[in-house]
Amino acid sequence: MLKDNYNSIANVPNPSIKKGSIKEKLLIFLEETLYTFQKHFKGKVNESEEYLNEQLGKTLTYFSKNQAFIFQAETKQKQEKGIDRRVDIGVFKHFSDPTPFFTIEAKRLTTSMPSNREKEYVLGSDPTKFSGGIERFKHNVHGVNLDYSAIIGYVQNVDGKYWHSTINNWIQELIDGKIESPLNWFSKDLLFNTCNFKDLRLVKSISKNQKLDQTTIKLNHYFINLCK
User: In the predicted model, is pLDDT for residue 216 greater than 50?
Assistant: First the structure.
């Protein structure tokens, strides 16, 4: 999670951006800025998720000063029942908007994770706590009522191609019922690579994930190679 002291509003949207194109502008900006983040923070292979999230938040805020969106750390995701959740970064169109139009969650990708957390990009070890990245979106506790969002993987060993295959193997085990989950998992939950692994600095994929309420959220997956 991002630190509480980084909860300030970043900027005011640019009115020159045409209505309806902001999502496309955001995805272009996000990809470009993640390459910059990779360049500046490569070698951070032992840093915590909290540290990396803080640096990512500052990087996105710095480069978005003239953009039509605002990045907010630790954005509250209001729940219909139970305790409200917080997603790592919420993206807003205006400082007065009560809810984000896009959310970003981030997870470390390293084989040194303890066994009870090794699959945390997808799901956690306790199905009642919703600690996994993808499962939080499927449970609609992150990306609440949204059609699009993103998950970022901090690759701290091996590479993005390896993690793409490994994560899809975990999802396939969920589809096949080899791993227990209260959620339904389908072939559309699998990550579809969109960059042909041409540049392992940033491996990009998409998935179309069905939520508990039967709506679908399209997740953009970005694996940032911090190894080199």
Answer: yes
End-to-end CA distance of the chain: 24
The 10s digit of each residue's pLDDT in 177-214 is: 999 899 999 999 999 999 999 999 999 999 999 999 99
Place of tokens 């710095």: 62
> Looking at the DSSP assignment, which residues form a beta bridge with residue 70?
92
pLDDT digits (tens, 9 = 90+) for 88-142: 999 999 988 999 999 999 999 999 998 889 999 999 888 777 889 999 999 999 9
**Helix or strand (DSSP H, E) at 90:** strand 85-92
**Farthest-apart Cα atoms in the chain, separation:** 50
Distance, in Å, from the CA atom of 201 to the CA atom of 224, rounded to the nearest integer, reads: 6
Residue 1 lies in a domain: no
Q: What are phi and psi of 190, to 5 degrees?
A: -65, 150
User: Would residue 8 count as lying in a domain?
Assistant: no
Domain span holding position 186: 22-225
- List the structure tokens of 223: 């694996």
Return the closest-CA partner of residue 187 out of 204, 203, 196, 174.
174
